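[User]
Protein folding is very new to me. Any chance you could explain this protein sequence and its structure tokens? I have pasted everything here:
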Amino acid sequence: MRWDAQRLDLEDTSALPGMPSIRGLLRSVQVPEFPGLTFHEVRSRSALNAVPGDSSMPFPYTINPYRGCSHACTYCVSGDTQVLMADGSQRPIAKLRVGDHIVGTAKRGQYRYYVTTEVLDHWSTVKPAYQVNLADGTEIVASADHRFLTGRGWKHVIGAMGGPGQRPYLTTNDNLLGFGRTVTTLEVTADYRRGYLTGMVRGDALLKTYQYNRLGGGVGTVHQFRLALVDAEGLDRTADYLAREGIPTTRFEFAKATDVRQAMSAIRIQTATAVQRIREMTEWPHETSIAWQRGFLAGIFDAEGTRSRHILRITNTDPEILARTESALRRFGFDTALEPRRRSNGLCDIRVRGGLAEHMRFVHLVDPAIRRKCMVEGAAVKSGADLRVLSIDALGLDVPMYDITTGTGDFVANGVISHNCFARKTHEWLEFDSGQDFDTQVVVKTNLVDVLRKELARPSWKREHVALGTNTDPYQRAEGRYELMPGVIRALADSGTPFSILTKGTLLRRDLPSLVEAARQVPLGLGVSMAIWDDGLHQALEPGVPSPRARLGLVRALTDAGLPCGVFLAPVLPGLTDDEESLDAAIGAVAAAGATGLTVIPLHLRPGAREWFMTWLGTAHPELVPRYERMYARRAYVSAEYRSWLAARVAPLLARHGLDRQSGGAARQVDGPLATGVPGDEEVGFPEGSLPTGGLPSVRPPWTTSVEEAPADEAAAEQLTLL
């Protein structure tokens, strides 16, 4: 959710000495019951967060007792904003330092070009945050005053057509300039190093063993490895990777510079053991991992690749090397062309198509050593990437913005041209990172209930639908300590305000008596989200979330008490949980638990979440990586074809288990029971029972819950013990 749902609205008090600089901070605590978690207790000025009027969400207000989420789901973690460095690499803006060389732009005549510039200053400030969402999946968080370069010139994030706020500002008619979304460079592994050596050695090294006749008679044997390059970076990396394998090499001058040729250096080793070891390491493997293929592409590109005249190509005569290179490029979703040079030796070029956007994705994916081939210096600012502005969402937060001053007055961040001021995403307004810190640093609005009661008592309050759980889970483990939700439920019910709750946490079961009582006063909706039926997969992807069976027990407890409960089967993971057996088991279990409705939603991967999930997938299920790279190559969502296929598979299962009725929510459905987003996105369908309806449900006392289900105190214990 990207609107006021993320707002803290903290009271303007100073942070305590030694604590994070969070406005309104009372204290930061760690307790034995929650190992690895830090709770930052704050006082908030507001509880109700308004959803923008043009949103298609079926609720106008949200409440978020917590910021950050201890559920730690692998598929819902954002990444850092990346700034393009002069050597073509990327670095999070928070890690930039004065003196760093990065990429800016300069106008020459009628055209704008990428140029190298320097970071002259770097600091942090706090401003209200807005998120700019682009058609290629890029998401950028910035202040209202920040400017981006569009096809119509520089424009502020927010402005007005007239009055004191009049200035050029972004609209959905604008296209930003740059090359757009790329990828985050992954860590180097042993497989990556082996792949790199294979590409480099097979592409450009001398590796042979031969015999010769000695002058005095007899036969001698020579074992030789030699690699000669113009670029020292390629030699340095190769020598380092060989040294890690116990193969030390010697550096020497191979050729002096001439009028027509650059100087070359080389490394070598001439022992039989070392040469044989290198030969074994660079044999073609029977199976190739993602890391090996990334390394191989980096090595063959350093050895035989060029990037000139805005063309990226890899050239060789060996059919096996050409085939392996094409295969690896296709595995990562690159569009390639094989172009023979019509020479007797069979020389061919493999060209990577797609312009600068795909070139930079290649560079950041494989991470070559020779950086001159990765630089964009001198390239014209143009791209085929779809950088249309789709939406601009007010986050409702005063957040730390990482500002820099550069020699050109701009820089490239997340692939688009930005004018000096920028902010990292999501949880980083607390000076936390958006990966591990989002899972372990939780902000708690300790005065939420008191503030909420005051807001609900205002004469202007119209008792409109309020949603909880649209941003972070209100029943995450922190709720076991702070117990904010009972007061929230009572406050909403006492004021006559209809509400809904979406959760993965079985701790909601603790509040069953309060919910039963509230259902007698106001319409309410309850939703439970679950993605995975397989226990092993659940532990890998949702390590901090109650098990699917525990959540089904919650569904049964709610429906046995006469309360509505819709289930989001989300996200369905292609190739992992979309087979008929898995879907049938999950849908059957949901139906048996008494759910009033079900919505099935396939996985979507936004930038940031994509890198974390794909890293996990490459380790746990490398055979699926090519499929995911194809499915999500240019989009955050699965294709319409996959949705239709999944709809056809799910429809008879829903009918078989009596869940084939229409959604009870106001949001539209796509392809029958399917939608293209996750709970809270505009295109999602809400299952029956997850949103409040016009009438009051018929409820039964909570003690009529089936005795086969775990009691509420066990549900709470499950939360507290991280099981």
The mean pLDDT is 80. Residues 640-656 form the longest helix (17 residues).
